[in-house]
Amino acid sequence: MVRQLERSSHTPDGLFTCYPIGDSAHTPVVKDTDQHQSLNHPKPNLKCQGGSWFQQTCGHGNWKWVWVPCGKWSCKCCHGRRIREEMIPEIQMALELAKERCQTLKFLTLTACDGYLGGEPTTEGGNRRRLDYQHLAQRVRRDGGVFEYLKVAELTKRGRVHTHALVIMPYINQKALSAYWKKITGGSYVVDIEAVGMKCPRCWPGRAAPRFRRKKSMIIPPPGKGSCQNCGYKPDDYTEVARYAAWEAGKYLCKALDQETASRPEAVVVRRVKKLSRSKNWPKVKKEKKLAEPCEGCLKAHETTFVGTAEKLAEEYPGLTDEVRALAYYPRLGTPCGCWANSVWVGSKAFKGENGGLVDMLLFLPEPGGKTGQVRDR
After folding, report:
1. What is the DSSP letter of 318?
2. What are 214-256's pLDDT values in tens digits?
3. How many Cα neighbours within 13 Å face the side chain of 115?
4. Which residues of the chain carry a pLDDT beneath 70?
5. Distance between CA atoms of residues 211 and 205, nearest Å
6. Do 139 and 94 have their domain in common?
7. Angle at the Cα of 213 (from 209 to 216), degrees rounded to 5?
8. What is the pLDDT of residue 128?
9. 214 phi and psi, to 5 degrees?
10. Number of folded domains in the chain?
11. What is the DSSP string of 255-274?
């Protein structure tokens, strides 16, 4: 099943789409699968350019430098990883919740007309957007419907902000939804709502086909039809739907908003737009905090200390580069231990507990030579 879908993703027409459910909707929205390919097969040279350095110290007083990626949505490397590890599982859970509530998962886009405060990338604009969205949610819930969401705002090239969301909500005629939004905002009426679905990998006719043929080849997960109305194909599961829905939602987070608002210090888009907001009952993957286990070498849990961000340390300590991750250090008058057997041991210039060993990072280190576990004096 998955192989079949991945092969189809190489076709010019792509694989994934969301079929509009409103009256004014016309053509299915085709998502570029070239972007999605990078999600499954990241480029080998794609590397986080930020991150932070930590120092891990064992019970013998020896240490090892540990680099941790930045984890920011604006970082292309961390962006793809977070989509795979966080958003895809979360949206899979949302599809299940939507099925339980007898609703389809939908993409929702809400815009703000020119001059309206809710479209401004300012603190006041952010507060206005939040209130407007709450009013819309309350309106749907007051009418007896469910409204659970995962939303994020996007700063457009025109400097205006609009909101994108994945929502679990009843079907609402797009004209009625537009009227709701216009009343709430006092004039903004452009909205878009689309059911999350995918093209049939067997009989998708292509973009040039008539609309009724494309509609028949759309697969909307349950409680939608769940199968292709043209050939009867039914996926074994809907993992791919979650995958591409996650990519669509996540792409708005990776934009370099800091650069776009660098000349506008009052713009809170940098802080707010890149932050995902969820309703109370939206499913979220819980991260289990891993407790440090005792090391077999020193029988103690290693102590991890934050040293600083890679960007901040780069100038003052140029030796703190990628290659030090393969090394382990022992202080003066100290000896190597068995805590990091797969590392090359290096004698530090620092005494035990002295300045955390940063003195070794003042100059670039030579390429480590020898076999794993070798001891190399400085």
Report:
1. T
2. 878 888 888 888 888 899 998 887 777 777 777 766 665 555 3
3. 3
4. 1-46, 248-274, 355, 363-378
5. 10
6. yes
7. 145
8. 93
9. -65, -40
10. 2
11. S-HHHHTTT-TT-THHHHTT
